[in-house]
Design brief:
Distance between the termini: 97 Å
Low-confidence stretches: 5-21
Helix content: under 10%
Strand content: over 45%
Radius of gyration: 30 Å
Structural class: mainly beta
């Protein structure tokens, strides 16, 4: 009896609820109009043949009755480069979509642009048409297309047990030149083979996909030859605004041991948002070449700015800024920096406890937990080494290998070292250099109160008589890569 009574009450409750439910009313008034989250959907520049990111367009019914959209379609139809996604379905047209009262409908838009003969960006347009109760409304769709040279891996090599997918761009005894005519988009590694050379001309833009980069194999040679007016840009291939300052979007520029007379050279380049900006390693044999850098910025790397094992590196007018671990990390080798700025105010989520801006060592621990040693030599002249750590220089030295370092006319953030110690000459300690923007980063000097103004040694200033912006530093050089110009 109790069970029958319960079922009887439940049936009455359900019938009562059903009878009280309001019937949906679709309003046929032709004066009613949809509202949209945007009247124009503007896409970031899209490489031809590659799809864009997905953009959301929200469609609103602002009325107290339901609305039926009898037609949603791309004016360009099947030939349109755009596609719409509604309710998980991709198409160019949809019919009889109902939006409940005071509710909305989500649509998602993508664009894929076919290549053409143009080298400069070009506009690709279409319109999204909505017909509701005989009333027609449109939303404009606008994207910039950019043709590119695509480097796509077709082989794999193992380095240190890790697979590196690659495509040879400069084979043995071959010199390949990349020009600024069209950007280069790299999937995998663009590999310079032994005794091959890749020259990258001024103004060239290089976009690396996730896990991609440039690899100079043993005895290969990389030459980046930008100018102040037209630097070479190396960055990730995501062009949406959100990714402008997102680190770790691509892998690295990796240079292995090289041959005598074939130094790697990087001039007037901007290398951003990777994992390791410049990775130079002499692993297969003792390198007979050097990496020579001038007028270059490496910034916003999720790992290291300049990572070096047993290499020779000379860097002038060089900025390494804001890296997740160390800006400059070296084990063994020979290094010389002139008018360089090494600044680390890393604040991304991955590694809030980043290492010192400069970490150098003359020994490491092998697979058997035994130390092995290599000589280390470094000099820094007219440089700035600064950041948010108490000590921005860390040395890991053992007595079994020669180690020599000198800091001449430098500004250094350190509680461990001071000007009375061997290796430090005419140095300033723990004084704010007054960078224009620590987090952006922008390492220009932005105040006449900066202690670095006029404190450089003119002998080193004469090596690089113009700063990274082309401003003269002859006579009274400031420390770092930039002269103060705000007098």
């Amino acid at each position: 009896m109790k069970t029958r009574y319960f079922l009887f009450i439940l049936a009455i409750f359900l019938l009562t609820g059903y009878s009280c439910k309001k019937n949906s009313i679709i309003n046929p008034n032709a004066n009613l109009r949809l509202a949209f989250s945007a009247d124009t959907v503007l896409f970031d520049t899209v490489f031809t043949s590659l799809g864009s990111a997905t953009y959301e367009l929200r469609i609103y019914n602002q009325y107290s009755d339901d609305l039926k959209i009898s037609s949603i379609r791309l004016i360009g139809g099947e030939s349109s480069p755009y596609r719409i996604n509604l309710d998980g379905e991709n198409s160019t047209e949809f019919y009889d979509k109902i939006i409940p009262a005071n509710d909305s409908l989500f649509s998602f838009l993508r664009v894929t642009i076919n290549p053409n003969d143009l080298n400069t960006p070009f506009v690709v347009e279409d319109e999204l048409e909505f017909i509701t109760n005989g009333n027609t409304q449109t939303v404009k769709l606008l994207a910039w297309g950019q043709n590119a040279n695509y480097i796509v891996a077709d082989k794999v090599v193992n380095i240190g047990g890790e697979p590196y997918p690659y495509h040879i761009v400069a084979d043995s005894l071959e010199t390949t030149v990349w020009t600024s005519e069209r950007p280069y988009v790299i999937y995998g590694y663009a590999l310079i083979n032994s005794y091959g050379t890749l020259k990258i001309e001024k103004g060239t833009q290089i976009y690396c996909h996730q896990g991609s980069g440039i690899l100079s194999w043993s005895d290969g040679q990389l030459i980046i030859d930008g100018t102040a007016e037209e630097p070479v840009i190396v960055r990730g291939d995501r062009l949406e605004t959100y990714y402008n300052d997102t680190p770790g979007q691509w892998e690295q520029i990796l240079m292995m041991d090289g041959r005598a007379g074939a130094d790697h050279r990087i001039s007037h380049a901007i290398i951003r948002n990777g994992t390791i900006g410049l990775n130079c390693q002499s692993a297969l044999k003792a390198t007979e070449c050097a990496l020579r850098i001038d007028n270059t910025i490496v910034e916003n790397q999720s790992g290291y700015g300049l990572f070096s094992i047993l290499y020779a590196v000379e860097a002038k007018n060089f900025v390494i800024a804001n890296c997740g671990f160390a800006n400059f990390w070296a084990f063994g080798g020979d290094y010389r920096f002139v008018h360089s700025t090494i600044a680390n105010y890393w604040n991304a989520n991955e590694h809030n406890n980043n290492e010192n801006a400069v970490t150098v060592a003359n020994y490491a621990i092998d697979g058997n937990n035994e130390p092995f040693y290599y000589p280390f030599r470094m000099e820094m002249n007219n440089c700035i080494i600064y950041g948010k750590q108490k000590d921005e220089i860390k040395t890991v030295f053992g007595p079994e290998a020669d180690s020599l370092y000198t800091f001449d006319h430098c500004l250094i953030k350190s509680e461990k070292y001071n000007g009375n110690m061997a290796g430090f000459s005419h140095c300033l300690f723990n004084l704010d250099p007054f960078f224009a923007d620590q987090m952006k980063p922008d390492c220009h000097i932005d105040s006449i109160a900066s202690p670095v103004i006029g404190m450089g040694n003119p002998l080193f200033g004469n090596e690089m008589p113009y700063d990274l912006d082309g401003v003269s530093r002859i006579g009274t050089p400031d420390l770092g890569a930039y002269q103060y110009t705000g007098y």
